[in-house]
Amino acid sequence: MPGTKERGEEIRKFILAQIEDHPRDIVRHIIKTFGISPQAARVHLERLSSGGLLSEQGKTSDRVYALRLLVDWHKTYQLAPGIREDEILDVDVSAVLGDLQENVRSIWSTAFTEMFNNVLDHALAGEATVVVRKTAVDTEMTIQDNGVGIFKKIRQALNLPDERYAAIELSKGKFTTDPSKHSGEGIYFTSKMFDKFDILSSGLSFSRTTDQPQWVKDMSQNGTTIWMKLTNDSTRQPKDVYDQFTEDFVFDKSTIPMKLAQVGSAGLVSRSQAKRILAGIERFKSVTLDFTGVEWIGQGFADEIFRVYRKAHPDIEILTQGANKDVARMIQRAQSAP
After folding, report:
1. Among 52, 206, 250, 279, which residue's CB has the most CB atoms within a 10 Å radius?
2. What DSSP state is assigned to residue 198?
3. Residues 274, 275, 276, 281, Cα dihedral to 10°
4. Gap between the Cα atoms of 17 and 231, Å rounded
């Protein structure tokens, strides 16, 4: 049985982890989980508030709690010749991030240098603003530039009919508009290191599964905004991400979120859409198509991927995940066709 001190720390850690989902009913949530009195629950909340980790508004009967911002920092950098992402990391960003465990600091260092270097090499921007917001639970960072816009640049490079198709190309990995400077792997691996990761540009989103806060959405009107969020006590290691998608140091596995490919109201129905999704996947040994959030796929779409393409490319493994019953049934139908 944990002692009184350990029990109190457990309760307060629980509060911090749950407060965003239960800002108004956190007292009831504590009572239900730990079986303590309302008075005892409020003592823990008061301790966190007085310690500067929580903010509170309203009267006792209708009080609303929230994580208090411990860091709310931003700085705009003029992207003149000679500016270097590693110097910005050393001089500014590392100090702002503060005390973090080694693996989390490694993730932030890797991500910041990779993403800021992308701005320098690809964005055609005059300036970039870095924002860091940190609470007792997690840290968020945005990097916003005033450049051409990432999806617009990819659409132009590949002559795509719509910028929304650029997001699916980006999600595959190994794509870059400048192969002399980049492998195209940076965004793919960086996105897998975070609890939440999104790229916003031209009103479009790289990851439609995230629930980025309003302060991030407001920044995405011009150029490109990269948003990253990670819990401060994450156990994730950068090496784990690379190991998951590489074999003998070769990047040969990819996961494609199919929801990004749903352009227009028709959904995923045509062979042309399937061919566009499949373009370039011969660079991988194994590709997982993630159908999370996709309600339906057409017969032609499924047939092109799971019968026609598979027969033409038997050396490429095509896996699926997140498919509902209707999508899974259509996939099975295509796979069983002669």
Report:
1. 206
2. E
3. 100
4. 10
Q: Model pTM?
A: 0.80
Question: pLDDT by residue (tens digit) across 73-110?
Answer: 999 999 999 999 999 999 999 999 999 999 999 999 99
Residue appearing with tokens 């980049």: 182
Quick one: 145 and 293 in the same domain? no
Same domain, 94 and 215: yes
Q: Residue 62 belongs to what domain range?
A: 4-67
The amino acid present at 136, given as its one-letter code, is A
Report d(CA 162, CA 145) in Å as an integer: 22
Measure the CA angle with vertex 219, ends 206 and 80; round to 5°. 95
Last residue of a domain, one of 44, 67, 90: 67
Residues 32 and 118 in one domain: no
Q: How many residues does the chain have?
A: 338
- Token pair 């019968």 is at which residue? 307
30 and 146 share one domain = no
